[in-house]
Automatic annotation (TrEMBL):
This is Polysaccharide pyruvyl transferase CsaB. InterPro entries: Polysacch_pyruvyl_Trfase, Polysacch_pyruvyl_Trfase_CsaB. Residues 13-267 form the Polysaccharide pyruvyl transferase domain. Keywords: Transferase. Pfam families: PS_pyruv_trans. Signal peptide: none annotated. NCBIfam families: S_layer_CsaB. One of its GO terms (molecular function) is transferase activity.
């Protein structure tokens, strides 16, 4: 079976690439072949050993949707219009085109929101009759308020196995994000505090083309810019603790069984941390509160994280099962 995958892929964002790597891993493990709509199909095809099509080429997208057996829309934070209305319109359009092609569609382990009233109406209309799996409890509750056919899943990136690496308990990885200047400033204060306490501080940025100016703020610390999820997983598995503004800094830390605290610049960060029983602070964060979490080595609820991994695996079994392949509802 050929499985179409639609998301923010091929743009060298470590979080989205981690999601894609996990989806490819799980789809292939079940004997199926992914076809990915990508911003850089040549890179995606070479990197993951999959078919890939240019996501912004209408005719190529239409032809690709005709060749798949079902479409997974996700994962990620696609169903929001905080970034732009155009982004939401794009992902809903792909769903609509696949349905017109007569293909089963699943909203797959996404977050939901933030949405404007306009966005809510568009989502309700476009997803009528579409089975949805959401990756956190807050999104699930929101979806049900909108009347969507929703279940609880989990982020696929939780299923990535960390590489074998020796843990360095004294190493703390800080993950900033462009566009969150106040949170980044507080991360710098935290870095100074931890350095004074004798910790090795590593500042890790996850999106080339955006995060370089953020790293300039941390010139006095060890810095790295990495979009390869395998490299990110290696560093997070090596660390003794992780403090992350970015969602997938927290998710990949959880996958590596490294304790973490989140800085919630967006509801999706709070949603994941809440489900994981992990500490988090609303952006821009308080350096002293963050330092206390690191110094106390505050742990998430590892049992809850294992349950999330179980839900993530089960979500693949569910959408790829024979009983769902023929399920098509007209838009």
């Amino acid at each position: 079976m050929r499985v179409g995958v639609s998301g923010y892929y091929g743009f060298k964002n470590a979080g989205d690439e981690a999601i894609l790597e996990a989806i490819v891993q799980e789809v292939k493990a079940r004997g199926h072949e992914p076809l990915v709509l990508s911003g850089d199909p040549r890179e995606t095809a070479a990197r993951y050993g999959v078919e890939a099509a240019k996501r912004a080429h209408p005719l190529e997208v239409w032809r690709s949707l005709g060749r798949i057996d079902l479409l997974l829309s996700g994962g990620g934070g696609l169903l929001q219009d905080k970034t732009s209305r155009t982004s939401l319109w794009y992902y809903l359009t792909i769903i609509g085109l696949a349905r017109r092609r007569g293909k089963p569609v699943f909203v797959f382990n996404q977050s939901l929101g933030p949405l404007s009233p306009w966005g809510e109406r568009r989502v309700q209309r476009a997803l009528r009759g579409v089975p949805c799996l959401f990756r956190d409890g807050d999104s699930l509750a929101y979806a049900r308020r909108l009347g969507l056919e929703a279940q609880l899943g989990a982020d696929p990136a939780l299923l990535l196995s960390p590489p074998p690496v020796e843990r360095e308990p004294n190493m703390v990885v800080l993950i900033p994000k462009y566009g969150t200047e106040a949170a980044n400033a507080n991360l710098h204060k935290l870095a100074d505090r931890l350095k004074g306490e004798g910790y090795e501080v590593v500042v890790l940025a996850l999106q080339p083309g955006f995060d370089e100016p953020v790293l300039e703020r941390f010139r006095s610390f060890t810095r790295e810019l990495a979009w390869d999820p395998r490299r990110v997983s290696y560093l997070l598995a090596q660390a003794g603790y992780v403090v992350s503004v970015r969602l997938h800094g927290a998710i990949l830390a959880a996958a590596a069984h490294t304790p973490f605290v989140g800085i919630a610049y967006d509801p999706k960060v709070a949603g994941f941390c809440r489900d994981a029983g992990a500490a988090f602070v609303e952006a821009p964060g308080d350096p002293e509160v963050l330092a206390s979490a690191v110094l106390a080595r505050h742990q998430p609820n590892w049992k809850a994280i294992e349950e999330m991994k179980t839900r993530a695996r089960a979500s693949f079994d569910q959408v790829l099962s024979k009983s769902h392949r023929g399920r098509v509802k007209s838009p």
